[in-house]
Amino acid sequence: MNVKEETSQRVAGLQQIIIESQADACIISTAVNQFYLLGFIFDGYLFIQPEGDPVLFVKRPNAIEGDNVIYIRKPEQIPDLLHQRKIALPKKLMMENDILSFSTVSRLQTALGMPELMNVSGEMRRIRSVKSEYELEQMRECANIHAQVYEQIPGIYRAGMTDIEFQAELEREMRLAGSAGIFRTFGENMDIFMGSVLAGDNAQSASPFDFALGGQGLSPLLPIGANGTRLIPGTTLMVDMAGNYRPWMSDMTRSFALGTVPGIAYKAHQVSIDICTAISATAKSGTPCADLYFLAEETVRRNGLADYFMGTEQQAKFVGHGVGLEINEPPVLAPRSKEILQPGMAIAIEPKFVLPGIGAVGIENTYIVRDDGLEKITVCEEGLRVL
Predict the structure, then answer these.
(1) Which of 220, 235, 216, 348 has its CA nearest to residue 283?
(2) Are 91 and 10 in contact (CB under 8 A)?
(3) Number of neighbours of residue 301 by Cβ within 10 angstroms
(4) How far apart are CA 243 and CA 327, in angstroms?
(5) How far from 383 is each of 103, 261, 273, 380, CA to CA, in Å?
(6) Pick from 341, 163, 167: which is nearest to 242 by CA?
(7) N or C: which end of the chain has fewer CB within 10 A?
(8) What is the DSSP letter of 89?
């Protein structure tokens, strides 16, 4: 199947949602959903009706061609342009209300004659959560490159460097390998730059962002990740950098010992591997996501590591999440999750531990959900290697 056939099927999937919601039309204007539906991004509005080809109201760039491409300066022009095409103004309109600003939504609603608004954000994330074979192959390719870059970590490390110096060297290798240089995330207060490197006790620093672990960061402007900590013997280094070598991403974490570290670091790290192995052996299409969280929690409790699981000062209440065009797509492996695994979903499982005075340990892998189990696509050494 080629890209045009893929995008046509995705548009058809959204049109089915419009029909089921009894809406008259849907407007898509965020970059990630435009890319999903079209294969490219533009500044403007993608207008989709229950049937027929979408109409693109484009502000920029000025190089998009097609019978359904209309150039505009402002949304107030849309009603007249729809009228010229004999398209009635929608009375019920779906928009990405979880993402767009209030002023953007209000302006569009006013321009279109105050239609009743319906939220399409959750539905878009839901249909994106189940990937086609084309999308999954993109993720496999990404994961292969991701692993190749991680295998270079021992050669990047130099005694005495800081976490920032290490991360800068790793980011260079990522860019040379084709990294897009952006880690798309969903939600408010979810900023991050190409991933996270946590050294020593910086892993204990709580962050306002809803990631598995925090880190102080270099500035209050971006309070997450590396903060200039020097890499010293007796501590650990956790690497959770972006797998963004294709539009559909992978997510992977690996941890390293800096010289000799206490035995509890090796114990906790092995428990992380054991949790991933147990979930991989248990999960399949039809498995409730909450069950997988409880499996991880029970393994942690049985090993006496509950105080360190997913943080210390601030403990994350999930053990995994969906991956795709954004790094935090549905489903979420959390205790209150009502989601059920479906074939074609891609999930990252990341049981992590933060040990005071030592640092963070644990792994993260990306898996594809199949009818009979999980397919691991991030294949890279998982043990706590010594640098």
Answers:
(1) 348
(2) no
(3) 11
(4) 9
(5) 50, 14, 8, 9
(6) 167
(7) N
(8) P
Two structure tokens written together for 101: 């600003």
Radius of gyration of the chain (CA): 23
Decide: 310 and 210 in contact? Cβ < 8 Å. no
Alpha carbon 269 to chain centroid, angstroms? 24
Do the Cβ atoms of 13 and 127 come closer than 8 Å? yes
Flag whether the pTM goes above 0.85: yes
Closest CA to 200 of 154, 234, 244, 153: 234
Tell which residue, 225, 245, 249, 251, has the closest CA to residue 237: 225
Helix (H) or strand (E) holding 173: helix 163-176
Closest CA to 316 of 215, 225, 212, 190: 212
Count other C-beta atoms under 10 Å from residue 9's C-beta.
Answer: 12
Residue 197 pairs in a beta bridge with 239
What are the b/e assignments for 155-164, b being 16+ CB within 10 Å?
ebbeeebbbb
Half-sphere CA count of 246, side-chain side, radius 13 A? 19
Find tokens 């809406």 and name the residue: 23
CA distance 207 to 211: 8
| Contact yes or no for 15/8 (Cβ under 8 A) | no
The pLDDT tens digits for 81-108 are: 999 999 999 999 999 999 999 999 999 9
Mean of pLDDT over the chain: 96
Q: How many residues does the chain have?
A: 387
Nearest 5°: the CA angle 233, 237, 242 is 160
The predicted pLDDT at position 182 comes to: 85
Q: Which residues of the chain have pLDDT under 50?
A: none
Omega of the bond prior to 61 within 30 degrees of 0, cis?
A: yes
8 Å CB contact between 130 and 342: yes
DSSP 290-323: HHHHHHHHHHHHHTT-GGGBT-SSS--S-SEEE-
Answer yes or no: are the C-beta atoms of 226 and 349 closer than 8 Å: no
Contact 113, 123 (CB under 8 A): no
DSSP 288: B
